[in-house]
Amino acid sequence: MKLGYYPGCALEASSRDYSMALERVLKEIGVELEPIKDWNCCGASAAHSTNHKLALALPARNLTQAKEQGLAELFAPCPFCSKTLINTNQEILDGQYKVENGNYDGKIKVINSVDIFTRLMDKIQPKINPARLKDLKVACYYGCLLVRPPKLLKYDDPEQPTSMDEVVRKLGAEPVDWEFKIECCGGGFTICNEEAVLELSNKILEDAKDNGAQAIIVACQMCQINLDMRQKAIEKKYGVSYNMPIIYLPQLIGLAMGIEPKELGLNLHFVQTESVTTKVQNPQVNSVQ
To answer: What is the pLDDT of residues 65-106, one digit of tens each?
Structure first.
């Protein structure tokens, strides 16, 4: 099985661990990623705030390239990238934007990281041992962009999403009930307003811990970076101790498959993940330290 793929900038740089886990897990179930040839930055992080035409032209070029490759669907792991591609599709379909130097019609389906694993569970389940994740309690964190804006994305419930929880449950882990699964971590402010990021991310970590989570599961590299890389700064600022691993959904799937943590990039995180990986590798351990 081949899957059209738009990696985006971050998965080839700061979020290489996300890319490693995706590629390793998909390879395990016989899914081959077919990247867009000569893909470019979709402008997700900045173009929309500086130049509206550029914000549409950048993703439109990627979509046009995908069509020329004969792709009907396009997997975009980054929620910001997937939203940008979907928004451009809609602008084209509504006649608000016309692709220059191409005949792209706005009809390639863009798929996010939770959706693709939901669809592939029939291939995943024969590869996993649910006992590996038994007693592991996790908080599924959707963030802002996976389910919103709802009229554009039309994915899951924008207030009470459950798609990631359902995948996690099938893997053998226990998703906790908590209040901050769709609250903003301050992703867009990660460089320009660190104080806002620390405040917002602290509330997410606090609620996850208060509800018994031993790790937070994410499908967005911006969320992962804020909750993982900034966690020590958050602990220092608020005088707390979380030591909360922030794990990508495909990393959790890989652990359920018995794949070595290093192959999934878990050794590249700022907050050490041994509290989870040791538990997974030794199911008889009953608690995460």
So the answer is: 999 999 999 999 999 999 999 999 999 999 999 998 778 999
Question: 77 and 21, same structural domain?
Answer: yes
Q: Cα(263)–Cα(34) distance, rounded to whole angstroms?
A: 21
* Number of CB atoms found within 10 A of residue 57's CB: 17
pLDDT tens profile 183-239:
999 987 777 788 999 999 999 999 999 999 999 999 999 999 999 999 999 999 999
CB–CB of 217/138 below 8 Å?
yes
288 found inside a domain: no
Report the alpha-carbon distance of residue 237 to residue 194 in Å, rounded. 12
Give the model confidence (pLDDT) of 144-170 as tens digits.
999 999 999 999 999 999 999 999 999
Same domain, 157 and 276: yes
Cα separation of 229 and 223, whole Å?
10
* H or E element at residue 217: strand 215-218
In 8-30, which positions are buried (b, 16+ CB within 10 angstroms) versus exposed (e)?
Answer: bbbbeeebebbbbbbbbbbebbe
Rounded to whole angstroms, the Cα distance separating 109 from 130 reads 31
The reply to whether 120 falls in a domain is no
The structural domain count of the chain equals 2
Domain that holds residue 9: 2-111
